Task: structure prediction
Amino acid sequence: QVQLVESGGGLVQAGGSLRVSCSASGRFHTINAMGWYRQAPGKQRELVATITIGGTTNYADSVKGRFTISRDNAKNTVYLQMNSLKPEDTAVYYCNVKYRTWTSRYLEVWGQGTLVTVSS
Result:
């Protein structure tokens, strides 16, 4: 089992910056990919950014050039640096981790979510 702890959400003015982080702990063989998704009120959850164990990143078009995802493999932690924030970035941000267990099962787990509010 893998547990995730998210932190760093909050309230920021438009144009400001915020960083959220997510740390994974528990029993697993390898964390293959880590990522961030978000869900705004009345909308479906959408991908924000992902990063593989090798460092390959993927971003939603809406955040390219403004957000940066990174990970510390030694700490099993993923970060999302959000710059030039816009009111439309307001959402609950969820951490997602895809991992391999010691019995070679491939599973994923979600964090509890952290609220990011961008005021205009």
User: Anything to note?
Assistant: Residues 5 and 23 are 5 Å apart (CA to CA). The chain has a mean pLDDT of 97. The radius of gyration is 14 Å.
